[in-house]
Amino acid sequence: MRLRGGLPLAVLVVLLVAVPIVEVYLLIQVGQRIGLLPTIALLVLEAVLGGWLLRREGSRAWRALDAAFRGGRMPTGELTEAGLVLVGGVLLMLPGFLSDVIGLFFLVPFTRPFARKVVGFFVARRLSRSGIAPGLFGGPRRPGAQGDPSVVEGEVVPDDTSETVVSPREVDGGRPQA
């Protein structure tokens, strides 16, 4: 069975099972190396750091989004930044070291441009597999542009040019009376 996007359901199930197993394994390994209390303290510290970074970077992303809207331009980069900040903050607040590393990758300002390029690569690859043209969203060639051979110009001619005028008294339950 496949999900709507073509991703096999088995891959999703494996990820939903494998990621928590890897997280627990890493927690056990770190706990054995540094002890139980330092491991718990480290997880709490990472969650607090995640909340702080989410608040700081989220407000920056919101201001950039607002500036783009006020400037009258499409905020594509700003939306990607905001999405990465949101996902990164949530991953940092989840307990686990693997999710924290990925969350930091998405949230820290100097790694986020690289994360945006990686996400953009996967989105572009996904769109091209779906059959959506790369120039569709503001590129040089748009469907319906002048000279597009798939557009047939025409004129709408109404069948009946007479109009029926109905007064509010003639309407009963939304239907005109005969």
TrEMBL record:
Record bears the keyword Transmembrane: yes
Keywords in alphabetical order: Membrane, Transmembrane, Transmembrane helix
TM ranges: 7-28, 34-54, 83-108
One Gene Ontology term, aspect cellular component: membrane
Region Disordered, annotated ranges: 138-178
Stretches with biased composition (Basic and acidic residues): 169-178
NCBIfam families per record: PRK11463.1-2 (NF008528)
Protein name: UPF0716 protein FxsA
